[in-house]
């Protein structure tokens, strides 16, 4: 059952964001649960490589999707008369495809940098999943240059996304000064949801990846937060703070409880 009110490009991007979040959590949560129940916790090199690659694929794709959603809000608020023309179905499909390509390139670069390193043992990962810093610590060669390139790769993605997000929201806030109070409240509600999700995503990533390669006690806690807790939480944030989503859910609930009124 679908709702016509949820057919705008924003919900098109949100549906893909939800899909990426599910995939992102699925790369770590099942393995985490199985390791908690197992006495001997082991993973093959190919299994570790696969997990590492998918984590950075879905993480990079999510960063690009969040940036595209900020651009969508900019067009919807600042150019409402041209919104349906600019953000047509073909353009949205192209942008989502570009996000997947960007995430794939980001993942491929990190994977090639890490897995060409020699691992001489003991191959004990001080983490609950295969990530950059734990794997670099296992290499029996100088990893300074590799670590620098990985930080540059992730930093470039983060900086580009952050600058685009910041610029779009600054322009939106400046544009809202000429809107009515009702229009400002509606626009700020949507932008508030997006800013919350962006903060929950980029905050832990900056803490983990854009600092010196030192291990902190809080690393695992922060990693659990952004790989297990945040992914299913983000779509909920959009749903609870969006009036159109809540109205659509209410209509679906009424139809399910009272089918005779359909």
From TrEMBL:
Organism whose genome encodes this protein: Muntiacus muntjak
One Pfam family of this chain: 7tm_4
Membrane topology, from the record: Multi-pass membrane protein
GO cellular component: plasma membrane
Family statement: Belongs to the G-protein coupled receptor 1 family.
Record flagged with keyword Cell membrane: yes
Origin organism lineage: Eukaryota, Metazoa, Chordata, Craniata, Vertebrata
Name of the protein described by the UniProt record: G-protein coupled receptors family 1 profile domain-containing protein
UniProt cross-references to Gene3D superfamilies, sorted A to Z: Rhodopsin 7-helix transmembrane proteins
